[in-house]
Amino acid sequence: MNTLEKNTASEAAPAGAVLPLAPGRARLIAYAGAAGTFVSTFLSWTYTEEFPGNLTVYGYPGGLQLLTLTGALLTLLFLLSGSGLRGLRWLTPGGPNSAVRLLALGTLGVTGYTIGAIVKNLGGLVNVDPGGYIAVAMALIAALGALGLPADVPVDPERPPANAWAQLVHSLKAPAPGRVRPLPGWVEIVIISAAFALGLYIFTFGIDTDYAELFIGYMVLVSFAFPAVGRAGLTRQLGQLTAEHRNVTVTAAFVAAFAFPFTQSNDAYASIGTNILIFATVALGLNVVVGLAGLLDLGYVAFLGVGAYTAALVSGAPTSSIGVTFPFWAAVLTGAAASLVFGVLIGAPTLRLRGDYLAIVTLGFGEIFRIGVQNLDGDSGPDVTNGPNGIPNIPELEILGFNLGEEHTILGQELGRFSNYFLLMLLFTVVIVTIFRRADQSRIGRAWVAIREDETAARAMGINAFRLKLLAFALGATLAGMAGTVQAHVTYTVTPTQYKFVEAVPPNSAFLLAAVILGGMGTVSGPLIGASLLYLIPAKLQFVQEYQLLLFGVALVLLMRFRPEGLIADRRKQLEFHDTGQLDVPKDDTGLSKKVGV
User: Fold this and answer.
1) Contact between residue 325 and residue 391 where contact means Cβ atoms under 8 Å apart
2) 229 φ, ψ to 5°?
3) What is the C-alpha to C-alpha distance for residues 65 and 69, in angstroms, rounded to an integer?
4) Among 530, 120, 53, which residue's Cα sits nearest to residue 284?
5) What is the DSSP string of 406-460?
6) Coil, helix or strand for 178?
7) N or C terminus: fewer CB in 10 A for the chain?
């Protein structure tokens, strides 16, 4: 009798299941629902082509149907893996059922949203074809079956879930998987390369979405699929492989990012990637100050503005009051040096403060910078920055005779202006990531972490806290200034309104701080992912821009409640915010816990 038959024969409701179903019956229901959802994507969901994506064709899924199809396929794959099918058991090293629940719920979410969008956009349920009703019914059946599966983490009889919501949350937990079974080196390299290639495809699909409904459906599915992969244990397994092949991982990440412009047929989409890199690198600089040293800086965008204004003044712009033209490398060094000096000038008198007092003072300095450049207009002060009009008409960058504002053919692909700047910012990102990693893994980085955790104890151990905090401030300011030199040329102009503490359009200090906290403080990938999400969502959903600040606040509240360590967290943060008994902390040969880098 195989595993599926044994489960079917069992009539007792499994421990930890959300719904009281026998394990075998629940799995069969989930199978039937997922298979029915897959088939329903080949039916017509609406009779009119007025809804984007053309969901009227039988036998050929389109638009949002493709997302439902993807969710149903993933649900079936993880169900088969949980049933012990040879060749697929590697999909669920962390537990077979938590991932199925998340994927089934995500598929139901995408399908339900699609039908709801059809009803809203076209004006009533009459516009939904039978295929749409079948899709929702099948997705609901799959979700109900998945909720009847046993929990991967047994329920503690002494501390059972207090309510239905706590029971659902517990059912989505999965035990930490063990170490990866040794594989040939070339196989591990292929797995890492395939993971980054898949990540590039998923990211590119999101940027290339043509209409808001498709992007929202994409975000719904991704929001469930990525946690599902983590609950299945694949993320932890991939993390172990990347830790063992760091050079291969860095190379694969760089190659995937380099390939992004070559996947874009519209240079407008490449502009989103360029701005994401600019703000992500600035957020990574802020991560030095906030994530490593634990200094709450609410005026960090001023350092970006110093670099941008410096580059604009020495770029040869017609309205520049200096009237000089530096080559790009000299402009970058000048912008970084100016931001460094500005950081030291701010940090020297303020870094003896702590906590809220430091945050208030840095907020004040950020506003002083904005008001200062606004008043340097020749009337209220010296004519340096052209006042509120800023410095417009900043010329395109030209590096070794290569004009980044013109189209160029590289590897047989026409690259537009924003693609050229994307590749330049990618180079800057590599430099900034290298600096961050070196600093984090050095004695100085460990001293920053000690100051962040307990400054008094750090001082007692002989750490010069003021000098190291000033160094963190100066380094963060320098990295922001470097990114600002490129941002000035990408946007053609710099104005004081671009560098407020809070504004509906980035860059601003609130956006950068939210990116660091959302992504995960103290990590490399956290701020990159946080900035990508916070910039990409408003850029693709125009109606969200009016409510961007409200949504930022809601997202941070939910994050603090359910995942205070951020989306990408290092081991130290996980141990700080969660029960240490629930985490698999690696040990060294002596049995003591050791640090795991992220």
Assistant:
1) no
2) -60, -40
3) 6
4) 530
5) S-EEETTEEE-HHHHHHHHHHHHHHHHHHHHHHHHTSHHHHHHHHHHH-HHHHHH
6) coil
7) N
Q: What is the DSSP letter of 151?
A: P
Cα 490–chain centre separation: 23
- Coil, helix or strand for 476? helix
Find all residues with CB under 8 Å of 85, minimum gap 6, and list them. Answer: none
d(CA 568, CA 137): 35
The tokens 């989306």 sit on which residue? 567
Q: For 500, how many CA atoms within 13 A lie in the half-sphere containing its CB?
A: 8
Tokens of 216: 């929202």
E strand or H helix at 489, and its extent?
helix 465-491
Alpha helices in 123-180 (DSSP H): 130-147, 164-171
For 325, the 3-state DSSP assignment is: strand
Residue 212 has a pLDDT of: 86
Nearest to 563 by CA among 597, 501, 528, 517: 517
**Type of residue numbered 565:** E
Give the C-alpha separation, 335 to 282, whole Å: 14
| SS3 assignment, position 81 | helix
| Dist. CA 519–CA 458, nearest whole Å | 27
Cα–Cα distances (Å) from 399 to 270, 327, 396, 597, in that order, read: 20, 8, 10, 36
- Which two tokens mark 464? 């010069």
Residue 114 is encoded by which pair of tokens? 């699609």
CB 145 within 8 A of CB 31: yes
The owner of tokens 């640090």 is 595
Question: Would you call the peptide bond into 527 cis, given omega within 30 degrees of 0 as the criterion?
Answer: no
pLDDT in tens, 5-20: 444 444 444 556 677 8
* CB proximity list for 251: less than 8 A, separation 6 or greater: none
Among 111, 474, 497, 494, which Cα is nearest to 295's?
Answer: 474
Strand partners, 325: 315
Cβ proximity of 362 and 348 under 8 Å = no
pTM: 0.82
- What residue spans of 11-129 are helical by DSSP H? 23-40, 64-82, 98-122
Measured distance CA(78)–CA(470) in Å, rounded: 50
Q: What is the pLDDT of residue 131?
A: 92
Query: Which residue from 300, 272, 292, 252 is spatially nearest to 484, judged by alpha carbons?
Result: 300
**Neighbour-count burial of 411, counting CB atoms closer than 10 A to its CB (0-12 exposed, 13-18 middle, 19+ buried):** exposed
Q: Which pLDDT does position 164 carry in this prediction?
A: 55
Q: Which residues of the chain have pLDDT under 70?
A: 1-17, 153-181, 504, 545, 570-598
- Backbone dihedral angles phi then psi of residue 32, each to the nearest 5 degrees: -60, -45
